[in-house]
Design a protein that fits this description.
Blueprint (H helix, E strand, L loop, with lengths): L4 E8 L6 E8 L9 E8 L10 E4 L15 E12 L5 E5 L2 H14 L8
Antiparallel strand pairs: 1-2, 1-6, 2-3, 3-5, 4-5
Length: 118
């Protein structure tokens, strides 16, 4: 299972010319025969202004340790990337079901999708 994993991946800068190995969240299982995975960018640099589509991962959260992240981080769900699974350098952790749910809610807000809760 890939969805919900925290991975290191070469994430492009805005200029698309350069990239840096960054943490990202796997939002999907591998898709198609090319095994593409949709990822969301994670940053430890705290944004000046949080968006309602951002998800903060705080070391005070009981589930934080399993993410493999070293510091308070923000999942920026508006910064998405699709890559072949072979591009992923390594897995560093996993989101808890609660964190995954928060990410799903943020993506629903991003795309203005109404999701019925069970």
């Amino acid at each position: 299972m890939t969805r919900g994993k925290v991975v290191l991946v070469p994430f492009p800068f805005d200029d698309l010319e350069t990239h840096k190995a960054r943490p990202a969240i796997c939002l999907t299982e591998p898709l198609t025969r090319h095994r593409h995975i949709v990822l969301a960018f994670v940053t430890s640099r705290q944004p000046d202004e949080l968006l309602d589509t951002d998800v903060v991962l705080d070391p005070q959260d009981a589930e934080f340790a399993q993410t493999g992240l070293q510091a308070r981080s923000t999942i920026r769900t508006h910064r998405l990337l699709t890559v072949a699974s072979s591009v992923i350098k390594r897995e560093i952790g996993v989101l808890s079901p609660i964190m995954e749910s928060r990410v799903g809610d943020a993506i629903a807000r991003l795309f203005r999708i109404s999701i019925a809760k069970e």
